[in-house]
Specification:
By secondary structure, this protein is mainly alpha-helical. Helix content is 57%, strand content 2%. It has three domains: 54 residues; 27 residues, no CATH class; 48 residues, no CATH class. It contains six helices and two strands, in the order ααββαααα. Strands 1-2 form a two-stranded antiparallel ribbon. α1 runs antiparallel to α2.
């Protein structure tokens, strides 16, 4: 079996160039290790701030991103011929061309606007929608939890159904 040749001849190279190469390599490694520590510290500070201000959505997404680690992405698309395109301008031009072909409508001279009609829900549809509400979720902006609607019985269901239908038909919210 052949022995591998070293990338430099020990007899030809001098010790100072070897030391110089090793010093540069160590310095680069130290630099990138410090940059990684700074990045991780900034991310942890961001998570801590999100937790402090109860920004739960950003906190959870940040934690999941942190657990997944760095995920490299590619910026490559195929053009009409199947060739790979890498430049951001050419990729943008490719998508513009794709969507202009996709949304171009030939042979249609006038497009009529569809008429919006008022639709009321039936009591059965409303009962099914109430049945699909999830329990133990935070209330929306109105601070009205789903458990109250579900536990309200037929009286609450019918009153809420009438209220929603009247709002839909009149297209305005009641004062109270």
């Amino acid at each position: 079996m052949k022995e591998r040749k070293p990338w430099f001849d020990k007899e030809d190279s001098n010790q100072s160039s070897i030391d110089n190469i090793n010093n540069v390599r160590h310095e680069a490694t130290r630099h990138f290790r410090n940059k990684e520590k700074e990045y991780l510290k900034a991310k942890m500070d961001e998570r801590q701030t999100n937790g402090k201000f109860r920004n739960i959505r950003d906190l959870c997404s940040g934690i999941s991103d942190f657990k997944e680690g760095y995920q490299p992405g590619t910026n490559i698309e195929k053009d009409e011929k199947g060739d790979l395109v890498t430049g951001s301008n050419s990729i943008l031009a490719r998508w513009i061309n794709h969507f202009s072909q996709l949304f171009s409508v030939h042979g249609v001279s006038d497009i009529r606007q569809t008429e919006i009609y008022s639709r009321t829900t039936s009591a059965c549809e409303f009962e099914m929608a109430i049945g699909k509400l999830k329990r133990q979720k935070s209330p929306c902006i109105d601070q009205f939890p789903a458990e109250i609607i579900k536990a309200g019985g037929r009286t609450i269901h019918s009153e809420t159904h009438e209220l929603i239908n009247s709002i839909w038909n009149k297209e305005e919210l009641p004062v109270e």
